[in-house]
Write a structure and sequence with these properties.
Elements (H helix, E strand, L loop, with lengths): L4 H13 L1 H6 L7 H16 L3 H5 L3 H7 L8 H10 L6 H19 L1
Helix pairs in contact: 5-6
Protein name: HAT, C-terminal dimerisation domain
InterPro entries: HATC_C_dom
Organism: Cinara cedri
Length: 109
Amino acid sequence: MKISEDIESKFKQLVETYQDIIDEYNVSSLNDHILNGELDLWYTKYSNLISSELKNKNIFEVYFQTSPDIYPVIPKLLQIFITLPVSTATGERSFPTFCRFKTYLRNYL
């Protein structure tokens, strides 16, 4: 199966965005051919699954079933995806501060 140029460009953009994290794990000899080959293997593996098999998988299963020997970059991107929601709690932290500020304004103004 042929991967669309849109998917390829988004994959390259992800790799460029998280290049520091990927390089930290000694994956320094990456070029476009290696990345395209890895993406082709990954896309072929998961496009052959029927929709019911794909619906039963979650991101943790996919991460633990991915071999870093075969796919050097994709496990790193999946790990970032798994941990990303934990690191984006700024809106939740600001809400209690807003309540304290509101109480201060009510009491002292």
